[in-house]
Specification:
This protein is α/β, with parallel strands linked by helices and 358 residues long. The protein has 11 helices and 17 strands.
């Protein structure tokens, strides 16, 4: 990967590339990209963990909630997951569906990674390479940690001026270079999102988020969009703790603050601009319904009802492990405190109070 990157940079205009170009290469290059390689990425043998991999309860609960939504709205029983990873969420969802709901349904999976496609091959799902194959879709489109893995630009304010942080090569090493901000799309994003940086502040600019929301809206004729991810509101972005932005890597479950390390060998992620997700969605005909912290959403969806209420003395039994997993999803300080669930709708009129069973 490093020789390829250096050659790519040295042959680019000004011998620099944006962080967005860098992330796109190191994560999504067809042969060298992290997500495209034949190696574990999620779980103990990988580099990071996701909510859907903590417990099968997450997928099972979402299956029941999805059925409730379809019943309320008369939507077809069609579910589309974007970027399913190991397929653990889909497996749990489909198991719950087969055991308790027992109605014909379609489960679509948009998955570009050949490695993850192989892991998902035993599932009864319809594989799609991209959202463009999903035109005219009616149902629910779900993603878990999709937007945080999209390429982002990085900008910084110094002495009252805005700069884009670019990637160059010096003495054979990858380095950052501060270039006066000239990208009109970034300027437009700042104006549209109503973000004003403080002097010395660095922040990621998710231009790809708008493109993804547009693709989702174009694929969806009628239905619900559910986004599970971590992010900040504009007010939270302005907190002094966010001065250096949120871009980081995960390598063998260790957080790496300099994402120029281990190119092609580690995950790279960034927090969402939650206010922009809602605002841009509205522009793409995805009307905002509600936003919750993930633990709040899971409680509303009935996760406490999943707790086994009888005692099992064996701490390693399936019941005890399941109960521990449920608690880890809703306890203060757990992973769900850092995630949000954003719900949007298209060509529906669904009140937040109708989202859950009474």
């Amino acid at each position: 990967m490093i020789p390829y990157l250096k050659s790519f940079i040295l042959n680019s205009p000004g011998q620099v590339i944006s962080y967005a170009d860098y992330i796109r290469i190191v994560l999504y290059h067809p042969e060298l990209g992290y997500y495209m390689k034949e190696q574990p990425k999620i779980g103990r043998k990988g580099d990071f963990i996701t909510t859907s991999n903590i417990s099968e309860v997450y997928g099972r609960l979402l299956a029941k909630w999805f059925f409730h939504i379809c019943h309320k709205t008369n939507l077809p029983l069609s579910f589309c997951e974007i970027g399913g990873g190991t397929g653990r969420f889909a497996k749990a969802f489909l198991q719950e569906w087969a055991e308790t709901i027992k109605q014909p349904m379609q489960y679509f999976m948009v998955e570009a990674s050949p490695y993850h496609q192989k892991l998902q091959k035993e599932l009864s799902i319809i594989h799609l390479q991209g959202l463009e194959e999903l035109q005219g879709f009616e149902g629910m489109i779900f993603s878990n940690e999709l937007f945080d893995a999209l390429p982002v630009h990085v900008i910084e304010k110094a002495e009252g001026h805005l700069y884009e942080i670019m990637i160059g090569v010096e003495n054979g090493e990858l380095i950052e270079k501060q270039i006066p901000l000239v990208n009109p799309n970034i300027v437009a994003f700042l104006e549209e999102s109503e973000l004003t940086l403080n002097d010395g502040q660095r922040i990621e600019i998710p231009l790809e988020m708008g493109n993804m929301l547009r693709e989702i809206s174009q694929a969806l004729t009628k239905g619900i969009v559910v986004t599970a991810d971590y992010g900040y509101t504009n007010e939270e972005w302005m907190h002094p703790a966010r001065t250096n932005g949120s871009l980081r890597g995960y390598f063998q479950h260790q957080m790496i603050t300099n994402v120029l390390h281990y190119p092609g060998e580690m995950d790279i992620t960034t927090h969402l601009h939650l206010d922009y997700l809602v605002k841009k969605g509205e522009q793409e005909n995805l009307a905002f319904v509600a936003k919750w912290r993930q633990d709040e959403f899971l409680l509303k969806a009935g996760i406490l009802q999943e707790l086994a209420d009888h005692y099992d003395p064996n701490p390693f039994s399936e019941i005890r492990k399941r109960n521990r997993s449920i608690r880890s999803l809703i306890m203060p300080g757990g992973i769900s405190e850092f995630f949000h669930i954003v719900i949007q709708q298209k060509n529906l009129v669904l009140d937040p109070d109708e989202l859950f069973e009474e």
